[in-house]
Design brief:
globular, 10 strands, alpha/beta, two-stranded antiparallel sheet, binds zinc ion, 8-stranded parallel beta sheet, 40% helix
Length: 314
């Protein structure tokens, strides 16, 4: 078994306009990094447009949000449309958003049926800020929450965990998981920072584990927070599958935030999650790209993350 990389050229066609940090070059930077010989063993798959994606978007977001996003971006002929203060759509956005969801569903299929051990979905737009009824923070649909619900609905996974090391708090995933004790959400993030949620006291029904960090924090506080506030409760939760909201904007080069991580720290976090997955969930991991806005920091970090997924498989 192996690691699958799921992506698609259509992700380049989600055009957010000039000077937007969440831009197509992010895909090109990761493509280049993952074309190195180190990654020759990756199994490649195109992110699909699926017939059943709307069923699972509705399961997570409800029909109104799907209807709102569809009305806003499905039939754009040209130009840009501002869907929220920093979420911009273009004519290519609808297909990209659906293939982003499709990548997560496909990854769950491959991992839960044992065809691969783990998966990295190199997608955009990202998802973790999208709430049940609101597009926000560059996100239309919450890709990772949809994948979590799908793992449960389609494969009977009893406990599904999402661990989110993006520098921003995944307010959308937290909101969607808030009152469901069989869905775990654990997040390290800078605070204060957009979107403003993610305090320690936000605990849901005992299923939400926030580990806020301060601007300037680097490896030591990150590892300590990750171990104590995420990994320890994650072991107790004993997930059937581990999902990762893999944002790489906590890298010290990133222009949107002030944490001081390096690519090796993402490798360490991935190895730690792979260890949990080995012990509780047959190694099953589905990772989905979230943020990361410095192209060099993003490429180095994504490469370190995917290398750790490949090594976990060996
Ligand atoms: Zn982010």
């Amino acid at each position: 078994m192996t690691t699958v990389l799921i992506t698609h050229p259509a992700f380049l066609n989600h055009d957010t306009g000039e000077h937007h940090p969440e831009r197509p070059d992010r895909m090109r930077a990761i493509d280049k990094a993952l074309s190195a010989d180190t990654f020759a063993e990756l199994f490649h798959r195109e992110a699909p447009l699926r017939d059943d994606d709307k069923t699972y978007i509705e399961l997570t977001h409800g029909p109104q949000h799907l209807a709102n996003v569809t009305a806003a971006i499905e039939n754009m002929a040209s130009g840009h449309r501002q869907v929220d203060s920093d979420t911009v759509a273009s004519p290519g956005s609808w297909e990209a958003a659906r293939r982003g969801v499709g990548a997560g569903l496909d990854a769950v299929d491959l991992v839960m049926t044992g065809k691969v051990t783990n998966a990295f979905c190199q997608v955009r737009p990202p998802g973790h800020h999208a709430e049940s009824n609101r597009a926000m923070g560059f996100c239309f649909f919450n890709n990772i929450a949809i994948a979590a619900h799908y793992a449960r609905e389609k494969y009977g996974a009893e406990r599904v965990a999402v661990v989110d090391f993006d520098v921003h708090h995944g307010n959308g995933t937290q909101e969607i998981f808030w009152s469901d004790k069989d869905l775990f959400y654990g997040s390290t993030h800078q605070m204060p920072l957009y979107p403003g949620t993610g305090a320690l006291r936000e605990t849901g029904v005992g299923n939400i584990f926030n580990a806020p960090l301060r601007s300037g924090d680097g490896r030591e506080p990150f590892e300590e927070a990750f171990r104590q506030r995420i990994l320890a409760p994650l072991h107790n939760f004993s997930p059937d599958v581990v999902l990762i909201s893999a944002g790489f904007d906590a890298h010290h080069r990133d222009p949107l935030a002030g944490l001081e991580l390096v690519e090796d720290d993402f490798q360490w976090a991935t190895e730690a999650l792979a260890d949990v997955a080995r012990r509780h969930s047959k190694g099953r991991i589905v990772s989905m790209l979230e943020g990361g806005y410095d192209l060099k920091g993003l490429a180095l970090s994504a490469a370190a993350h995917v290398k750790a997924l490949l090594d976990a498989d060996a």
